[in-house]
Design a protein that fits this description.
The chain has one domain: Acid Proteases (Cathepsin D, subunit A, domain 1), CATH 2.40.70. Helices cover about 15% and strands about 30% of the residues. The protein has helices at about 70-75, 135-140, 165-185, and strands spanning about 45-50, 50-60, 65, 90, 95, 100-110, 110-120, 130, 140-145, 150-155, 155-160. The longest helix is centred in the last third of the chain and has 19 residues, at about 165-185. The chain starts with about 40 loop residues before the first strand and ends in an 8-residue tail after the last helix.
């Protein structure tokens, strides 16, 4: 580019220059240190309301951002902090779940913060929270379950957050164990 002062007699263009950021992409380098041939859920660590939160699932398939009881209690929140939320949700097991309410909290990942409205549900989950499409869009996240990573633009460049395959597998085992428990017939207790 040449400064406009160096081009006498030329009119500045009507179009404004658009500054673009480096494109977000995944390649084979992103596969390093991954346990390959996997079908793992994307589970990361982030900050919610100033606290480091583990077992955060990133799920592109739904629009609800869900918080489970462990995180709600761990953040020292009370039911009085919730606002009303009347729409039932369908859980992973296909059963309807009635939310306790919703709450707006700051969520920070690698220095980029957005406000997230979490729907609080009192049901079992090995995850502390599930982040879905609205969060993905607000953060400008590009996720890859193959690479077990999310990438997004920040003022300092592209941030990369690696998922934790070991934690994802622990959550899967906990889910399967919970399903087995629910299917077991109730044991008779002798009188």
């Amino acid at each position: 580019m040449v400064p406009a002062d160096d081009c006498p007699g030329k009119q500045p263009s009507e179009k404004k220059l658009k500054f673009t950021r480096e494109p977000i992409a995944f390649n084979d380098d992103d596969l390093e240190e991954m346990i390959q041939l996997h079908d793992d859920t994307l589970v990361v660590t982030t900050q919610v309301n100033g606290f480091i939160v583990n077992r955060v699932m990133i799920d592109r398939e739904s629009s609800a951002k869900v918080m489970y009881p462990d995180l709600f209690k761990g953040l020292d929140l009370n039911n009085e902090d919730l606002s009303k939320y009347d729409t039932p949700l369908v859980g992973f097991n296909g059963q309807m779940v009635i939310p306790e309410g919703q709450i707006l909290l700051p969520m920070n990942m690698e220095g980029k913060e957005v406000m997230v409205t979490f729907i609080v549900v009192a049901s079992f989950s090995p995850y502390t929270t599930i982040l879905r499409r609205p969060w993905i869009h607000a953060m400008g996240v590009v996720s890859s379950t193959l690479h077990v990573k999310v990438k997004f633009c920040t003022e300092l460049g592209i941030a990369i957050v690696r998922g934790n395959q070991q934690v994802a597998r622990q959550c899967l085992v906990a889910t399967v164990n919970q399903e087995i428990k629910q299917k077991e017939p109730a044991k008779k207790v002798p009188l």
